[in-house]
Specification:
With 165 residues, the chain is α+β, with helices and mostly antiparallel strands. It contains 3 helices and 3 strands; from the N terminus they run ααββαβ.
């Protein structure tokens, strides 16, 4: 009888130990899983942002109208809420050392003298906000930026004709 009672008391204690271990490990596992979801969302957002910049640049190399280029970037990224203010479009001379629109006056390729071979540069940017509380404490917002550069293949007509084919 004594042997049976000691075995059953050990089982009760081990059941309690398992519950305590589970209670300690569960928050850690939950944070890891939510962190992986956040990482997946961030990668998706960056890939969508990059695709929007590339698609807008494809438009910019044949149609240099910045409003249409920005509209193409927004249309290519409907799921992330890209806005016109988050897209910059500029044109640089072919031998420019710049690969972004940070300084629009340097190596500028104005529309009056724009020729085939100038660079069309489209930059799309936005701020990613993590949904996991612990991650958002350390990184409340993460800036994401993607730039696409391409050579102008066609210069839109100016004057009486206002559209590009």
């Amino acid at each position: 009888m004594h042997v049976l009672s000691s075995i059953s008391s050990r089982r009760r204690r081990s059941r309690g130990q398992s519950l305590v271990e589970f209670a300690i490990v569960l928050p850690i596992i939950t944070l890891v899983v939510l962190g992986l979801f956040d990482l997946g969302r961030a990668v998706f957002t960056y890939n969508t942002l990059s695709q929007a910049a590339r698609q807008a640049n494809r438009t910019a190399i044949v149609d240099q109208n910045t409003d249409r280029v920005k509209a193409m970037a927004i249309a290519a990224a409907p799921t992330i809420g890209l806005k016109s203010s988050n897209v910059t479009v500029c044109f640089k001379t072919e031998d420019s050392a710049q690969s972004n629109c940070a300084s629009p006056t340097t190596d500028n390729c104005p529309s009056a003298t724009r020729v085939i071979g100038c660079l069309a540069i489209v930059t799309a940017s936005m701020t990613y906000t993590p949904m996991t509380p612990v991650i958002s404490i350390f990184w409340p917002s993460i800036p994401l930026t993607s730039t696409s550069v391409g050579h102008i293949d066609y210069v839109c007509p100016v004057g009486t004709q206002t559209t590009c084919p």
